[in-house]
Amino acid sequence: MFLKKDRTMKFSNLKKTIMGALASLVAVSMILSSCSSSKNAAGTAALEGEWNIVTACGKSAEGGMNPAFINFAKDGKVNGNASVNSFFGNYTFNGKKLKLDQVGMTRMMGSSMDIEDAVTKAINTVETIKIDGKKATLFDGDGKEVMTIEKK
Q: pTM for the full model?
């Protein structure tokens, strides 16, 4: 009987230790995630909102079937129009690096497919951004300019 009580006490102590470690891990995770999300929210303020696409891959984006634009929402969603088709997806931004991912697009044909193709290529290759007030320039991984945008 003494042996059974000793095992129960050891199991109880082990259980308390594990639960304490898990609680500490959860608390640290919550603190770290709240710090990064508040940093992300503050960092995206300059990017948030709707921007007119001025150029894409060296071509003017004006004069297409529809005005080409891109919208960066506070919640990390991106959407816009590439002149013919609408696009949507997610983005992450840290002040300089900009990543668009899980981008989807409607698939219609139109009269300004050359603009459409340039915007689509730019969206798929962008890695960094330089924001200067109401103007911004987006670059690919090699530092080549792929898009210029102006805040509406």
A: 0.72
